[in-house]
Amino acid sequence: MDMNTIEAVVRTTDPAQWRDGDAWLAGGTVLFSYGSYAFGPQPLKRLLDLGAAGWTPITVTDDGIELAATCTIAELYTLPGLPDAANRRWPALDLVRPCCDSFVASFKVWNMSTVGGNLCTSLPAGPVISLCAGLDGTATILVPGGGSRTLPVADFITGDAANCLAPGELLRSVHLPASALSARVAFRRLSLSNLGRSGVLLIGRLDGGTSLVLTVTAATKRPVQLRFEAQPDADLLASGLDEAIPADLYHDDIHGLPAWRRDMTYRLAEEIRAELAAPHGTPGLAVSGDFWPPRTGGMPGSGPTTLPKGA
After folding, report:
1. H or E stretch covering 47
2. Where are the alpha helices (DSSP H) in the chain?
């Protein structure tokens, strides 16, 4: 909370107002914990506050779902139950709550932390990154010179706490296409401790009933996607991981050594492959980790909930 260098808080969503020494402020759960020197040796002077942006948190259309950057995690958690979404045949909505649960955060964080904040912080374990990359989300970015640009969320993150935003650019929203939402999905997550930060988080998607899309996050410094035109066997999947993820791309911190993250990536990828290759609802499939299948019920904090222990 050491922000004693701030001289002004400006309510704006206009990138043209950005100048050196500024930082965009959404929920602030990370920015306030990092303090005035969050972005380097030069202290922050102003906060550009998005709190009054008034952006609609979630918009559902036939083309998919638009998530505003200011959508909170608490609002995101309600998405599968919203009438506009619940009435559609979008199996991938089952991913939303497991990804939200992967925050393993307090209700205070849930009600302040935002979709855009999680992406822009760009930590390997960011579960909104996992959700949006796994569903081929497209980010819309407002630029200081006016206008906007778009790019896949999988390309938005470039490394540990690094992304493609240039100074002054502002993440406006993320679009999740109906084509990805219509796919059958599978989810796996592992942590070294019960309810700890994600050490490995994988999302599998079966497009058109035949094409496997596997997205690896948390284990790697940035999202990695593998696409197979047809269902791969175990050997083809393993060789695809060999080729897509070099050893130095596996993340290394207190939440997991690279060797463990690599081993668990192969293990969980094979579980996902087996689940999506089998008929839906097949009993006896291996399911490692927490939050899958997605639990039902209310918001965290609305009542007692027993969560499974991570493997």
Report:
1. strand 46-49
2. 31-34, 73-77, 83-86, 96-101, 107-112, 115-121, 127-134, 153-156, 178-181, 234-244, 258-277
Q: How confident is the model at residue 298 (pLDDT cuts 50, 70, 90)?
A: low
By DSSP bridging, strand 22-25 and strand 46-49 are parallel
Both tokens of 31, joined, read 């920015």
What residue type is 274 in one-letter code?
A
C-alpha span between 124 and 118 (Å, rounded): 10
162-167 contacts at long range (C-beta below 8 A, 24 or more positions apart): 162/122, 162/222, 163/119, 163/120, 163/122, 165/120, 165/141, 167/18, 167/20
Which burial class, exposed, middle or buried, applies to 246 when counting CB atoms under 10 A from its CB (0-12, 13-18, 19+)? exposed
Closest C-alpha to 11, from 61, 49, 55: 49
CB 190 within 8 A of CB 269: no
pLDDT digits (tens, 9 = 90+) for 204-236: 999 999 999 999 999 999 999 999 999 999 999
- Name the strands in the sheet holding 200-207, side by side, starting at the edge strand that comes first in the sequence: 184-190, 200-207, 211-217, 224-228
pLDDT digit string (tens) for 147-163? 999 999 999 999 999 99
- Give the residue among 277, 94, 52 at the shortest CA–CA distance from 187: 94
Q: What is the pLDDT of residues 56-68, one digit of tens each?
A: 999 999 999 999 9
CA dist 174 and 160 (Å) reads: 20
> Would you state the pLDDT for residue 305?
37
